[in-house]
Design goal:
The chain is α/β, with parallel strands linked by helices. The protein has 14 helices and 12 strands. The two termini are 28 Å apart.
Length: 371
């Protein structure tokens, strides 16, 4: 099969980790007889520098014409450290989500046995954690009315949601729960916020369409606490934009490294896949950034295209890299591998799955190929 993939490397370490994800996709193409046609596009600080616009029209068109979008990261210190900047890299991503209708953000959170010791939480608490977080992405306070009084002393951010916005993501979350452990937790603040009461009322009314799914509710402050006390109680979490942003970042520490967390942003016609880490400007160009989240994002991209065997092959390769300690310095300080070497190993393992540990000494001599 032939697929058109829009590639937005972005800023900082984005281009480096995205290149490793492409290596994995190219290996998949070789093994499973697919063709991936990549078309690169600008977004973020690099787009501002080149065009003055964080999201050029050409990028939107490229994304609209693609079967899926692979994205790296955006952000640069010259904007991060200047709160007065009127044009910012993040505006590009927010606009792209809105333009493409990417209303559903999916973040898997998994505690890998090989990385249990890396987590700041106790092993007995996090072992076996496997959560899928569904965050509404194009509504809420991020996209509401924003006002500042003339004297600059009063600010206002409006938050609004419609039943339609809630229903479309809730259907996806319920269906995900049906394919997993059949439990859905709605995280809200219904004791205080009118929007949260609408979320709870709407999702409750939908529950009878999914009788095999158990629906429960948590206020966001309690949910944040429960994620640390007992993450295994969660299967699928559904929540609005702001709460989802906070909860998913909190959950990212469970597995021991933000460098392993992929995400998908899904709409009716388009879908974008990205690691949840930022642009990490301090590591730019040093070949030390962990590419596994970007590579796992490529696996989610394949799942979206219906290529489930292919996605599983990437996931298996990532697990093998963790098992063998072929990881970057954030996970393996004693014998770290570079970003590109980890990408090489993942690609080679996909193409040589039956050769797993043969000639493993070559890996520790700096070779990336398993023979």
């Amino acid at each position: 099969m032939k697929y058109n993939i829009a590639v937005i490397p972005g800023d900082g370490i984005g281009p480096e980790v995205t290149e490793q994800a492409k290596k994995a996709l190219n290996a998949i193409a070789d093994v499973y007889d697919h063709t991936f046609i990549y078309k690169e596009a600008l977004m973020g600080a690099c787009a501002i520098d080149a065009t003055g616009n964080p999201l050029p029209d050409a990028t939107i068109q490229t994304c609209q014409e693609s079967d899926a979008i692979l994205f790296g990261a955006i952000g640069h210190p010259k904007y991060d450290n200047d709160p007065t900047a009127k044009v910012r890299p993040e505006q590009g991503l927010l606009k792209l989500r809105k333009q493409l209708g990417l209303f559903c953000n999916v973040r898997p959170v998994k505690a890998y046995d090989q990385l249990i010791e890396n987590s700041p939480l106790k092993k007995e608490i996090i072992q076996g954690t496997d959560i899928s977080i569904y965050r509404e992405l194009t509504g809420g306070i991020y996209f509401g009315i924003k006002e500042l009084s003339d004297d600059g002393k009063i600010a206002f951010d409006g938050c609004s949601y419609s039943v339609e916005e809630i229903e479309r993501i809730a259907h996806l979350a319920f269906k995900e729960a049906q394919n997993r452990r059949k439990k859905l937790t709605l995280v809200d603040k219904a004791n205080v916020l009118e929007t949260s009461r609408l979320w709870r009322k709407t999702v409750t009314a939908m529950a009878n369409q999914y009788p095999d799914v158990t629906l429960d509710f948590l206020f966001v402050d309690n949910a944040a606490m429960q994620l640390i006390l007992n993450p295994n109680q969660f299967d699928v979490i559904l929540t609005e934009n702001l709460f989802g942003d906070i909860i998913s970042d909190e959950a990212s520490v469970i597995g021991g490294s933000i460098g392993l967390l992929a995400s998908a942003s899904i709409g009716e016609k388009n879908a974008l896949f990205e690691p949840i880490h930022g642009s990490f400007p301090q590591a730019t160009g040093k070949d030390i950034a962990n590419p596994l989240a970007s590579i796992l994002s490529a696996a989610m991209l394949l799942q979206h295209l219906g290529l489930h065997k292919e996605a599983a092959a990437i996931e298996k390769a990532v697990e093998k890299s963790l098992a063998l300690g072929i990881t970057t310095e954030d996970l393996n300080k004693k014998q770290a591998f570079t970003t590109s070497k980890v990408g090489d190993f993942i690609a080679d393992y996909i193409e040589n799955q039956d050769d797993s540990n043969i000639n493993f000494k070559n890996i520790h001599m700096g070779q990336s190929t398993i023979i």
